[in-house]
Design goal:
By secondary structure, this protein is of the alpha+beta class. The protein contains three helices and ten strands. α2 links the parallel β4 and β5. The radius of gyration is 16 Å and the shape is globular.
Length: 177
């Protein structure tokens, strides 16, 4: 038998482009692949992409995007983590951990002190295991009609040693990522 053995984990790779077809390859063609359509938000595409291919198939992704943020009234930048996707038939095998860890390691080279993501409540425990912490206050994000309170859970992670939680209030000065 040739090719990957079942004990060899496929490597995390960088993708220079992440298209709707790539997302469909991982999540299928459903109308609401991330389960967040009901919140009615407009999202920004990510600029940096980390993925896993297994047997030629794209099976996991995490993206990054530098975002302008107001923290305690002062403007700064965070690195937004988003677009985390794992093929439904391969969940529970550590693929989310691998792509998110690779993305966060790269985010540490990008300058900002904090990483930020938004998630549905059932995913909070997963991201906590990956080193993210809940922000407990409301977070405002921009939308085409004006600022709104983010209805999803907001989580942050330090991108440098000794970084403290962001001061509240936190407001994205852009669409969410």
């Amino acid at each position: 038998m040739t090719g990957n053995t079942s004990s060899a984990a496929p490597a995390v790779i960088r993708l220079w482009h992440y298209t709707p077809a790539d997302q469909s390859e991982i999540l299928g063609d459903g109308a609401d692949p991330f389960g967040v359509a009901e919140v009615g938000l407009t999202w920004l595409p990510k600029e940096e992409h980390f993925a896993v291919r297994q047997d030629g198939r794209l099976v996991a992704h995490a993206g990054l995007l530098p975002i302008p943020v107001s923290v305690g009234g002062e403007e700064t930048r965070f690195i937004g983590v988003g677009g985390v996707a794992v093929a439904s038939d391969l969940r529970g095998q550590g693929l989310a951990r691998r792509v998110v860890t690779a993305a966060v390691e790269h985010a540490r080279t990008m300058g900002p002190r904090h990483g930020l993501l938004f998630c549905r409540p059932p995913l909070v425990a997963l991201y906590q295991r990956l080193g993210f912490h809940l922000l407990h206050g409301d977070v405002q994000v921009e939308q085409p009609e004006g600022p709104v309170v983010m209805p999803l859970r907001t989580m942050w992670t330090p991108l440098r040693e000794g970084v403290q939680p962001p001061a509240e209030p936190v407001r994205l000065l852009s669409l969410p990522m």
